[in-house]
Please model this.
Amino acid sequence: MLLIHDIRADKEGIIARLAKRGKDFTDLVNQALTLDDKRKSTQVELDTILAESNKIAKEIGQLYAAKKMEEANAMKAKTVILKEQSSTLSEQLKSVEADLLEVLYQIPNAPGAAVPAGKSEADNKIIFEYGEKPKLTQNLPHWELCEKYNLIDFELGVKITGAGFPVYRGKGARLQRALINWFLDRGRDAGYEEIQPPILVNEASGIGTGQLPDKEGQMYHMEVDNLYAIPTGEVPITNIYRDVIVKEADFPIKNCGHTPCFRREAGSYGKDVRGLNRLHQFDKVEILRVEHPNNSYAALDTMVEHVKSIINKLKLPYRILKLCGSDLGFTSSLTYDFELFSAGQSKWLEVSSVSNFETFQANRLKLRFKNKSGKTQLAHTLNGSSLALPRVLATLLENNQTPNGIVIPDVLVPYTGFSIID
Model:
């Protein structure tokens, strides 16, 4: 969440940056500042009463020592009143702090200076494009290829669970596992420590990375235990550092991990959700970094290059988009999306988002470090999909189809154990 200090120091600048998201956040910003003023004044009043209580307590001790019992008892009666006042103010302070937090939770991250303004995804900026769109003798969408070669059974998933929960089988399952292992190995080669985290998280973890309360309706919630199925590995892995003060010498902190991910995707329907295009359960390999604020944007560029290197080795046509303000995620300050070209569907499919959250998550997480002067300050957090499996698998199948079968990219053959699906 945004720091109230930053909002107060540059109110108009923050409002202008938030306006890039296509919405006016002036009222919420003003509410936050008003509540912070009330918090400050209540704190001052409480501190004054507590100081007076401490002063009187010392005087009472002196009066008792001087055998002035009547005067001491009279002053004790005053402390009772002060105690009641301090108790009331303490409750008021807790209430206004809770109200302030609730308002701050509603304000998204302020887009960075490099983020273009825009009203929809149509205003995203294409900043890089690589590879030629394949010219195929046959042009089947991946769901038909999966049926033809018995790779993924979508109907069986409906029977077992429901729509959006496919069953991978045979060479389809082996190809999925090969991609996961290959992605993880590329992360390891780039210096990322592999993490295998829980896939259920508590409410504090969801709040820490910004999924709660913003995306509560999109997460699967187990009410009895108040646990949430993760929408991305970003949530449990980033929460490793919740309430942690790291050493400046530890930067950069680099983690990667594979997890299944669960998203309700309420309201999704139509041709855009067919096959692997949009699922309720899917696998993803995530890379995450905790960085010194001075280095986070250089780290973001490094993460973008890492994802590029992976897609280049798969020899899939792709492009990179800089997201405009209205398409930016709630917690992000700057995001680059990677899209692969789907030959079987003749359209671009998002497969990765690489984002810098600056201090937005760290403020919620209380993720800090001590700088060289010994002062504690917030770190920056970043994450990226490296990569999300469903649409990578879909485009890999579609773009490598031939009349004789589906050709597996050379880099994956040592992981699959086969070079063609026929």
